Amino acid sequence: MDNQTIYALSTVYGKSGIAVIRISGANALKVVSEMTHLSPSNLKPRYAYFSKIYHSTSKQHLDNAVLLFFKAPNSFSGEDTIELQIHGSKAVISSTMDSLSQIEGFRLAEPGEFSKRAFYNGKMDLTEAEGLADLIDSETSEQQKYAIRQMEGGLKDLYENWRAKLLTILSHLEAYIDFPEEDIPQDVINTMENDVFKLVQDIKKHLQSDNIGERLREGFRVVIVGPPNAGKSSLLNAIAKREAVIVSDIAGTTRDAIDIHLDLNGYPVIFTDTAGLRETEEEIEKKGIEIAKSKIKDADLVICLFDASKDSVQIFDNIKKTFKNNILFVANKSDKLTFEQCSNLQKQGCLVISAKDAGKVKLLLQEIEEQISSRFTSNSNLLITRQRYREALQNTVKNLSVFGFDKEIELTAEDVRLAAREIGKITGRIEIDEILDKIFGSFCIGK
Question: Mutual orientation of helices 154-178 and 186-207 as an angle, nearest 10°?
Answer without folding.
Answer: 150
